[in-house]
């Protein structure tokens, strides 16, 4: 699977084709079995499509944005590159102020880099 993804394939699609399930479905099922609130279960399930899941919850959008930041900073994107490529629909859904988000980039980079190193 990793080779297909490295070659440009979408990870979720590869997981669905090869395993019949993807990481978001596994995560949501674990959350259900661990008795997480339904709102969090749905947020985990829709983290990669937070705006396409009917009435998207802010939790799904927040997980999606956090994942985006961790991945981007994990491959050493600059703060300006991150700002240019942020999913604006998700930023708007969360009601984030672009100026305050820009100010927060150094702290976000630090937090994401630490988190990325732990994984």
TrEMBL record:
It holds the Pfam family HDOD. Residues 1-50 form the HDOD domain. This is HDOD domain-containing protein.
């Amino acid at each position: 699977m990793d080779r297909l993804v490295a070659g440009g394939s979408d990870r979720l699609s590869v997981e669905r084709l090869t395993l019949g399930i993807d990481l978001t479905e596994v995560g949501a099922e674990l959350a259900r079995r661990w008795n997480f609130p339904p709102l969090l279960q749905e947020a985990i399930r829709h983290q990669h499509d937070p705006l396409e899941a009917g009435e998207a919850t802010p939790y799904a959008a927040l997980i999606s944005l956090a994942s985006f930041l961790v991945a981007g900073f994990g491959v050493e994107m600059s703060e300006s590159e991150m700002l240019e490529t942020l999913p604006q629909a998700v930023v708007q859904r969360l009601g984030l102020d672009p100026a305050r988000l820009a100010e927060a980039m150094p702290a976000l980079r630090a937090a994401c880099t630490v988190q990325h190193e732990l994984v």
